[in-house]
Fold this sequence. Notes:
The complex is a heterodimer.
Chain A (H helix, E strand, L loop, with lengths): L1 H20 L2 E7 L9 H7 L2 H4 L2 E7 L3 H9 L5 E6 H9 L4 E9 L5 E5 L14 E4 L5 H13 L4 E4 L3 H9 L6 E3 L5 H5 L3 E6 L4 H4 L2 E8 H6 L1 H18 L3 H11 L3 H11 L2 H4 L7 H10 L9 H7 L6
Parallel strand pairs in A: 1-2, 1-3, 6-7
Antiparallel strand pairs in A: 3-10, 4-10, 5-8, 5-9
Helix pairs in contact in A: 2-11, 5-15, 12-13
Chain B lengths: L7 H20 L4 E18 L2 E19 L2 E8 L4 H19 L17 E5 L6 H11 L4 E17 L4 E18 L2 E9 L4 H18 L9 E7 L1 H11 L6 H5 L20 E4 L18 E6 L2 E2 L6 H7 L14 E4 L9 H5 L2 E4 L2 E8 L4 E6 L3 E5 L2 E5 L4 E5 H7 L1 E12 L11 E14 L2
Parallel strand pairs in B: 4-6, 8-13, 12-20
Antiparallel strand pairs in B: 1-2, 1-5, 2-3, 5-6, 6-7, 8-20, 9-10, 9-12, 10-11, 13-16, 14-15, 15-18, 16-17, 19-20
Helix pairs in contact in B: 1-2
Amino acid sequence: MKRTLAWLFSLVALLGFSAARADDTLKLAIGQRGNWENAPAELGQRAGIFKKHGLTLEILYTQGAGETLQAVLSRSVDIGVGVGTAGTMGAFAKGAPVRAIANSMTGADDLFWYVPSASPIKSLKDAAGKTIAYSTTGSSTNLAVLAFVKHFDVALKPVATGSPASTFTQTMSGQVDIGWSSPPFGVKDLQEGRIRIVARESDVPSFRNQTVRVMIATAETTSQKRDALQRYFAAYRETLDWMYSDPAALKAYAEWVSVPESLAREVRDRFYPKENLRIERLAGLDEAMADAVAAKFLSAPLTRAQQDQLFADYVR
Amino acid sequence: MSTVVDTPRVATMESYFNDLAGALDRALAAGERYVASFCAERTDFVRMNRGKVRQPGHVEQRYLTVRLVKGARHASHTLSLSGDAAVDQAAARDALIGLRSVVVELADDPHLLLPDVVASSRSVRGGALPDTWQLVDTVLDAAKGEDLVGSLAAGPVQRGFANSEGQRNWHEVTTFNLQWSLYLRADKAVKASYAGLAWDRGTFDARMREARDKLSLIARPSRTIAPGAYRAYLAPSAMEEIAGLLHWGGFSARALETRQSALARMRDGARLDPRVTIAEDLAAGVAPDFQAEGFARPARVPLIERGALVGALVSPRTAREFQLAANGANGDEAPESLSMQGGDLPSHDALDALGTGLAIGNLWYLNYSDRPACRMTGMTRFATFWVENGRIVAPAEVMRFDDTLYRMLGENLEALTRETELLLDSNSYGARLLSSATLPGALLRAMSFTL
């Protein structure tokens, strides 16, 4: 009996050891460190969720989507997270072996436009002739402002103001009437009542249901690491469930980005509905292609066959 | 580290700054602190082309940045100063008063960190340079008969720091920075530079002679080299461009902590060749021994030792946010006195050691092609030669390289030159900078060219 137990213990130990050795490493490049939308990999790894699925994530942060895309295409990482759909389609159309594999963000609840609390502007409809901020020409904030003009049929005066921080200064000092921001920047000021939201990107119907950022991999990775990718998706889903249900996840996020938990909660609940981050979501492709053409990422919309190839390995 | 030279002019500028600080001391209210940094220069700028002076100029400027601190709240203001002590002291006081009304509106800054010890210092380096016009005449005479294009910046640069705790730091360095190209035609040129604290005619003549020699070589029919991997020798000025790319957050503690640094993988064990040792070394350069918040800089901050990442540049804010020890870095956490240890290859043997391959005098337009992999791309420019059996055969047409630091200074590093070269930053946008790099040349077994 003792010998049987010892044998069993050895087997268990061996299996355990094998399981530990079987961990696959996936390398990730992620833009916008600290953004809630891009936090699941970091938080899930810290919480041991990816480990449970036999994965170790090697996470590196980039300066933005262009750099993330480059890291994926040069095979120095397996997965790029938070890459603009338009940019991905543009790279694909030029022959890059890139595949969109999952949703990073669908919808547009995160970008918002605000005024100082004392401003007489209550909504964009009564802002005719007022200046409205966007970051840089060709950016998503620029596209949104142009869409506001069309959607609300109001003559706004778009002004390039740069980052949320520089925009805040210009808005609060009256240099521009309506500022723009992206959480967590500005959320504390919203909580303290110093500013008011007058519009969100999602006020424009075509942005409301559009997959604006995706996760990407090369065609080579999707075929060679199929099993690891499936486990990655499973762990990612589990992490998202945890992030939207367990206060410990909010605490972990707040500690990671050094913000109060109350602010973390506001960011999550007000700007990032869970549905927007569900990895299987894929919507508004026609609108995304139209934006990509307008922004010159694409010379023409992708054909049906091209779309099928680009999204062939999209998580289901 | 420094040679102290007291001259009437030095005493005047330094006492002018100390008087400004005194005015700020007197304007302070209870519960307030201030930190002030001072940046000044008196520079002769001369631009030359076609072997003639085209644009002589003289810049004399002084800026003071005052930061008022109340508790954990702070705000700052930068003033352009006139040089009139009474006017400037009044302006500094007014700036402080203006900041007082701003500070109360601001939230606490959780990452504010100021020194808790007073560490005053004084350093004046560099002797008197020859008269600027004398230097220009020397340069133009030496280049007689050639199409010389270049610029000379020379004169003293001052940095000061003061705070309400009585700390005073003064740094003055008198340097010259001469950059020139000898043009053959169109984009065919040889680039050279000579910078430092003391002008040595012999050194300049040697560099001009070398440039002229190369010019005769680029007159030969150029060779188009097919894309591929080639043995390569990178001169110190080409190495400066590669090192310069690492200034973009490579050694930044914040970028490393947030895994945004191009060297982040070195924290996971990636290594360069064991002969690669890099440090922020104050003695090697001309940067001050204090930073903008008044923290003293250690004489040496090891960054890479024997191929392994061992340190980072930690600014006070990063120190507070990530619970690290500040080590004198400014807010951008970029090296200001980067120094790479030389190897054992005598520079004059570099081409022999190269054998057959590319001798690259300079690189241009560098950027990351894949930052996480520290892969960079850029163009060859100015005097890149195809070498066979240690002898220059022909100038090479412009090529694009694309390779990772881990390969270039890792598995493909064959040797580093024994001699290193001090390369002063020639950037003068806004003000002359006091950054520098001291670098050897590098011989690579292979370097990857894509175009």
